Amino acid sequence: MTTTSSSASLLGRLLNGATTLSRVAIWVAGGLTLLSALYITADVICRKVFNFPLGGSDELSGYAFAISISWALSFATLERANIRIDAIYQLLPDRFAAFLDWLSLVVLAVFIVFLTRYAAQVAGMSWDNQSAANTLLGTPLWIPQLLWVLGFIWLCVVLALMLIRASLALVTGDIQTVRAICGIRTSKEEASEEAEAGKRIVQMERES
Fold first, then answer.
1. Looking at the predicted structure, is the pLDDT value of residue 138 above 90?
2. Over pLDDT 70: what percentage of the chain?
3. Comparison of pLDDT for 146 and 1, the residue scoring more
4. Could you write out the DSSP letters of every residue in 162-199?
5. Cα–Cα distance between 206 and 208 in angstroms, integer?
6. Residue 81, Cβ neighbours under 10 Å: how many?
7. Phi, psi of 82 (to 5 degrees)
8. Where does 77-134 show beta strands of DSSP type E?
Protein backbone atom coordinates (compact mmCIF):
# COMPACT_ATOMS: atom_id res chain seq x y z
CA MET A 1 0.00 0.00 0.00
CA THR A 2 2.88 2.35 0.84
CA THR A 3 4.53 1.65 -2.51
CA THR A 4 1.27 2.31 -4.33
CA SER A 5 0.73 5.56 -2.44
CA SER A 6 4.25 6.77 -3.13
CA SER A 7 3.91 5.88 -6.81
CA ALA A 8 0.60 7.72 -7.00
CA SER A 9 2.15 10.74 -5.28
CA LEU A 10 5.11 10.77 -7.67
CA LEU A 11 2.84 10.47 -10.70
CA GLY A 12 0.65 13.23 -9.32
CA ARG A 13 3.65 15.56 -9.03
CA LEU A 14 4.78 14.65 -12.54
CA LEU A 15 1.30 15.38 -13.89
CA ASN A 16 1.26 18.73 -12.10
CA GLY A 17 4.60 19.57 -13.66
CA ALA A 18 3.33 18.49 -17.07
CA THR A 19 0.27 20.69 -16.62
CA THR A 20 2.46 23.68 -15.79
CA LEU A 21 4.67 23.14 -18.83
CA SER A 22 1.64 22.57 -21.04
CA ARG A 23 0.10 25.81 -19.78
CA VAL A 24 3.30 27.65 -20.74
CA ALA A 25 3.22 25.92 -24.14
CA ILE A 26 -0.36 26.99 -24.80
CA TRP A 27 0.49 30.61 -23.98
CA VAL A 28 3.41 30.47 -26.40
CA ALA A 29 1.19 28.83 -29.01
CA GLY A 30 -1.43 31.53 -28.52
CA GLY A 31 1.24 34.20 -28.84
CA LEU A 32 2.44 32.61 -32.06
CA THR A 33 -1.09 32.63 -33.44
CA LEU A 34 -1.50 36.27 -32.43
CA LEU A 35 1.77 37.25 -34.12
CA SER A 36 0.60 35.44 -37.22
CA ALA A 37 -2.67 37.36 -37.22
CA LEU A 38 -0.82 40.66 -36.76
CA TYR A 39 1.53 39.86 -39.62
CA ILE A 40 -1.39 39.00 -41.90
CA THR A 41 -3.07 42.30 -40.94
CA ALA A 42 0.12 44.24 -41.66
CA ASP A 43 0.50 42.45 -44.99
CA VAL A 44 -3.06 43.31 -46.03
CA ILE A 45 -2.65 46.97 -45.02
CA CYS A 46 0.67 47.31 -46.84
CA ARG A 47 -0.78 45.69 -49.93
CA LYS A 48 -3.90 47.87 -50.02
CA VAL A 49 -2.49 51.19 -48.85
CA PHE A 50 1.13 51.19 -50.02
CA ASN A 51 0.87 48.62 -52.81
CA PHE A 52 3.81 46.85 -51.20
CA PRO A 53 3.00 43.37 -49.85
CA LEU A 54 5.19 41.99 -47.11
CA GLY A 55 4.84 38.51 -48.58
CA GLY A 56 4.84 35.10 -46.99
CA SER A 57 1.87 35.72 -44.72
CA ASP A 58 -0.04 32.69 -45.96
CA GLU A 59 3.00 30.43 -45.64
CA LEU A 60 4.07 31.65 -42.20
CA SER A 61 0.52 31.59 -40.85
CA GLY A 62 0.20 27.97 -41.99
CA TYR A 63 3.35 27.03 -40.09
CA ALA A 64 2.19 28.96 -37.02
CA PHE A 65 -1.23 27.30 -37.06
CA ALA A 66 0.18 23.76 -37.32
CA ILE A 67 2.78 24.33 -34.60
CA SER A 68 0.29 26.03 -32.28
CA ILE A 69 -2.20 23.19 -32.64
CA SER A 70 0.32 20.44 -31.87
CA TRP A 71 1.60 22.23 -28.76
CA ALA A 72 -1.91 23.13 -27.53
CA LEU A 73 -3.17 19.54 -27.64
CA SER A 74 -1.40 18.50 -24.44
CA PHE A 75 -3.10 21.15 -22.32
CA ALA A 76 -6.45 20.43 -23.96
CA THR A 77 -6.03 16.74 -23.11
CA LEU A 78 -5.06 17.45 -19.51
CA GLU A 79 -8.09 19.73 -19.17
CA ARG A 80 -10.32 17.06 -20.76
CA ALA A 81 -11.41 19.57 -23.39
CA ASN A 82 -11.80 16.93 -26.10
CA ILE A 83 -15.35 16.28 -27.23
CA ARG A 84 -17.00 13.02 -26.20
CA ILE A 85 -20.60 11.84 -26.57
CA ASP A 86 -22.09 11.25 -23.12
CA ALA A 87 -25.75 10.43 -23.87
CA ILE A 88 -25.39 6.81 -22.66
CA TYR A 89 -22.28 7.42 -20.55
CA GLN A 90 -24.29 9.24 -17.87
CA LEU A 91 -26.50 6.18 -17.35
CA LEU A 92 -23.65 3.69 -16.84
CA PRO A 93 -22.46 2.34 -13.46
CA ASP A 94 -19.51 4.27 -12.04
CA ARG A 95 -16.96 1.48 -12.38
CA PHE A 96 -17.90 0.68 -15.96
CA ALA A 97 -17.88 4.38 -16.86
CA ALA A 98 -14.42 4.69 -15.31
CA PHE A 99 -13.22 1.74 -17.38
CA LEU A 100 -14.56 3.40 -20.53
CA ASP A 101 -12.75 6.61 -19.53
CA TRP A 102 -9.51 4.65 -19.22
CA LEU A 103 -10.17 2.84 -22.52
CA SER A 104 -10.79 6.13 -24.32
CA LEU A 105 -7.44 7.38 -23.05
CA VAL A 106 -5.73 4.21 -24.34
CA VAL A 107 -7.31 4.62 -27.78
CA LEU A 108 -6.33 8.29 -27.90
CA ALA A 109 -2.75 7.45 -26.89
CA VAL A 110 -2.44 4.77 -29.59
CA PHE A 111 -3.76 7.15 -32.24
CA ILE A 112 -1.40 9.95 -31.18
CA VAL A 113 1.61 7.60 -31.20
CA PHE A 114 0.87 6.61 -34.79
CA LEU A 115 0.26 10.25 -35.72
CA THR A 116 3.55 11.29 -34.11
CA ARG A 117 5.40 8.53 -35.92
CA TYR A 118 3.97 9.66 -39.26
CA ALA A 119 4.79 13.32 -38.51
CA ALA A 120 8.35 12.38 -37.59
CA GLN A 121 8.72 10.47 -40.86
CA VAL A 122 7.54 13.53 -42.80
CA ALA A 123 10.06 15.77 -41.02
CA GLY A 124 12.78 13.16 -41.50
CA MET A 125 12.16 12.98 -45.24
CA SER A 126 12.28 16.77 -45.48
CA TRP A 127 15.65 16.72 -43.68
CA ASP A 128 17.07 13.91 -45.81
CA ASN A 129 15.97 15.55 -49.06
CA GLN A 130 16.72 19.08 -47.85
CA SER A 131 13.25 20.03 -49.04
CA ALA A 132 12.30 23.70 -49.16
CA ALA A 133 8.95 25.41 -49.62
CA ASN A 134 8.13 26.30 -53.21
CA THR A 135 7.65 29.95 -52.25
CA LEU A 136 9.59 33.21 -52.29
CA LEU A 137 10.78 32.52 -48.73
CA GLY A 138 12.03 29.06 -49.64
CA THR A 139 11.75 27.92 -46.03
CA PRO A 140 13.56 24.65 -45.25
CA LEU A 141 10.55 22.48 -44.43
CA TRP A 142 12.24 20.50 -41.67
CA ILE A 143 12.34 23.58 -39.42
CA PRO A 144 8.57 24.14 -39.00
CA GLN A 145 7.98 20.40 -39.24
CA LEU A 146 10.41 19.72 -36.38
CA LEU A 147 8.61 22.23 -34.15
CA TRP A 148 5.33 20.60 -35.19
CA VAL A 149 6.60 17.11 -34.33
CA LEU A 150 8.00 18.21 -30.95
CA GLY A 151 4.49 19.28 -29.94
CA PHE A 152 3.21 15.78 -30.70
CA ILE A 153 6.12 14.19 -28.82
CA TRP A 154 5.29 16.26 -25.75
CA LEU A 155 1.67 15.15 -26.10
CA CYS A 156 2.85 11.53 -26.09
CA VAL A 157 4.76 12.17 -22.85
CA VAL A 158 1.70 13.75 -21.26
CA LEU A 159 -0.56 10.91 -22.39
CA ALA A 160 1.89 8.34 -21.00
CA LEU A 161 1.82 10.03 -17.57
CA MET A 162 -1.97 10.27 -17.65
CA LEU A 163 -2.35 6.64 -18.70
CA ILE A 164 0.01 5.31 -16.03
CA ARG A 165 -1.71 7.33 -13.30
CA ALA A 166 -5.19 6.38 -14.52
CA SER A 167 -4.22 2.70 -14.75
CA LEU A 168 -2.92 2.73 -11.18
CA ALA A 169 -6.12 4.39 -9.99
CA LEU A 170 -8.29 1.92 -11.90
CA VAL A 171 -6.45 -1.07 -10.43
CA THR A 172 -6.75 0.28 -6.89
CA GLY A 173 -10.42 1.15 -7.35
CA ASP A 174 -9.91 4.91 -7.15
CA ILE A 175 -12.76 5.74 -9.51
CA GLN A 176 -12.77 9.46 -8.73
CA THR A 177 -9.13 9.83 -9.75
CA VAL A 178 -9.77 7.99 -13.01
CA ARG A 179 -12.59 10.36 -13.81
CA ALA A 180 -10.54 13.38 -12.76
CA ILE A 181 -7.79 12.36 -15.20
CA CYS A 182 -9.69 11.14 -18.23
CA GLY A 183 -13.41 11.35 -17.52
CA ILE A 184 -15.97 13.57 -19.19
CA ARG A 185 -16.22 17.00 -17.61
CA THR A 186 -19.40 17.39 -15.61
CA SER A 187 -21.73 20.38 -15.93
CA LYS A 188 -20.79 21.33 -12.36
CA GLU A 189 -17.09 21.46 -13.27
CA GLU A 190 -17.80 23.56 -16.34
CA ALA A 191 -20.01 25.91 -14.34
CA SER A 192 -17.31 26.30 -11.68
CA GLU A 193 -14.73 27.10 -14.34
CA GLU A 194 -17.00 29.69 -15.95
CA ALA A 195 -17.62 31.24 -12.53
CA GLU A 196 -13.88 31.48 -11.85
CA ALA A 197 -13.32 33.04 -15.27
CA GLY A 198 -16.06 35.57 -14.53
CA LYS A 199 -14.44 36.45 -11.19
CA ARG A 200 -11.08 37.03 -12.90
CA ILE A 201 -12.70 39.31 -15.49
CA VAL A 202 -14.47 41.34 -12.79
CA GLN A 203 -11.23 41.62 -10.79
CA MET A 204 -9.31 42.78 -13.87
CA GLU A 205 -11.97 45.41 -14.60
CA ARG A 206 -11.79 46.70 -11.01
CA GLU A 207 -8.00 46.88 -11.12
CA SER A 208 -8.06 48.76 -14.41
1. no
2. 89
3. 146
4. HHHHHHHHHHTT-HHHHHHHHSPPPHHHHHHHHHHHHH
5. 5
6. 11
7. -70, 150
8. none
